[in-house]
Amino acid sequence: KALEHAMERDKREVVRNAAAKALLVICKQALVGDDNQVKDKSREVREAAAKALGRVGHLVKVYQWTPNAFTSDEVAAAIEALKHALVGNQEPGSKDTVAEVRKAAAKALVEFS
Question: Are 58 and 7 in contact (CB under 8 A)?
């Protein structure tokens, strides 16, 4: 919540950009994990991460926020994390097993389109 607040309301652009970048990294890690596929064990945390990524997606879409806040590769990584949670990757059974998390990921993906 603190990062979301800073991202949306801080008067300094450098703070808003840093908060957005941190939010992308933290939420991606919580939602689908890192290279070792270690995602957060809590359904609530993964669901909140998907929702927060959706909020970033909303800002990217509405305010065309990518040039200063983060790179297109970072946005693409967030979208990939949401897709992974929703439908998985090449590994069988790799999508998130909790329906609420998949639903939050689907809603968040819409924000990026």
Answer: no
